From TrEMBL:
<dbReference type="InterPro" id="IPR050086">
    <property type="entry name" value="MetN_ABC_transporter-like"/>
</dbReference>
<keyword id="KW-0067">ATP-binding</keyword>
<dbReference type="GO" id="GO:0005886">
    <property type="term" value="C:plasma membrane"/>
</dbReference>
<dbReference type="InterPro" id="IPR027417">
    <property type="entry name" value="P-loop_NTPase"/>
</dbReference>
<dbReference type="InterPro" id="IPR030679">
    <property type="entry name" value="ABC_ATPase_HisP-typ"/>
</dbReference>
<dbReference type="Pfam" id="PF00005">
    <property type="entry name" value="ABC_tran"/>
</dbReference>
<dbReference type="GO" id="GO:0015424">
    <property type="term" value="F:ABC-type amino acid transporter activity"/>
</dbReference>
<comment type="similarity">
    <text>Belongs to the ABC transporter superfamily.</text>
</comment>
<keyword id="KW-0472">Membrane</keyword>
<dbReference type="InterPro" id="IPR003593">
    <property type="entry name" value="AAA+_ATPase"/>
</dbReference>
<dbReference type="InterPro" id="IPR014343">
    <property type="entry name" value="Ectoine_EhuA"/>
</dbReference>
<keyword id="KW-0813">Transport</keyword>
<keyword id="KW-0029">Amino-acid transport</keyword>
<dbReference type="InterPro" id="IPR017871">
    <property type="entry name" value="ABC_transporter-like_CS"/>
</dbReference>
<feature type="domain" description="ABC transporter">
    <location>
        <begin position="8"/>
        <end position="253"/>
    </location>
</feature>
<protein>
    <submittedName>
        <fullName>L-cystine ABC transporter ATP-binding protein YecC</fullName>
    </submittedName>
</protein>
<keyword id="KW-0547">Nucleotide-binding</keyword>
Amino acid sequence: MSDTSEMVRFSRVLKKYGDHVVLRDLDFTVAPGEFVTLIGPSGSGKTTILRLLMTLERVDGGTIHVGGECLTHLERDGKLVPANEKHLRRMRRRIGMVFQQFNLFPNMDVMQNITEAPIRALGLSRGEAEARAVDLLEMVGLSDKAKEHPSRLSGGQQQRVAIARALAMRPEIVLLDEVTSALDPELVAGVLKLLKDIASTTNITFLCVTHEMQFARDVSDRVMMFDQGQIIESAPPEELFTAPSHPRTQEFLHAVVDRA
Ligand SMILES: Nc1ncnc2c1ncn2[C@@H]1O[C@H](COP(=O)(O)OP(=O)(O)OP(=O)(O)O)[C@@H](O)[C@H]1O
């Protein structure tokens, strides 16, 4: 199947940890270039969705398609079999992820952090990878930090490097997992502004887990409310935040606003 009108498709996805069912019969799609934010209570399965897409976890049932191609399975003799490591590695290149804890390589400088994967996984020459990194460093406002090591950068700067590193692979999809939760409050707005600029100037598809409701409101094309591994509401932000239709969404948004 090759349906390029969908960048992501979850079909009847089941995910369990032991006996604990985290996602059950989960269906959703994300269109190319769409910015979709996942919100919902702690433990509702949001991060698990990103981890499945990053192939850090395997599904226990159902399938996931990325760009019209099956991520989770391969066809062998007319039957679907779980994808092998080679297939997962190839598919993973289409997807970038930015984590809460930056996850930069501490022993590499900023330039090496950004060029390592394009050289190793895409086979770019060092010159090509560095030219790409120079442009990205300019985009994230860190042109003067190429030779620094991550430990000498602020959290906000480290997260900008992590964003540049993800974009260096020219991914079709970028997954954002609570990217500002480890930042000092004064650094949050700058990183969110950068992401908003990137989202509005590229065709990248974003899937974002965040507790920053104002950001979700500003940047998302669609917000999906999760509860106990199910999508209970999916709507454009202006609709979901102003007139949520599901009582659990109303409750959740009240609780988040009261905490802020
Ligand atoms: N590796 C794991 N082993 C066992 N249980 C896990 C594992 N990872 C997640 N879980 C459980 O799966 C459920 C969903 O977790 P997940 O991290 O996807 O939720 P979340 O909605 O992202 O929560 P939060 O907003 O707190 O990050 C939780 O009950 C969690 O305890």
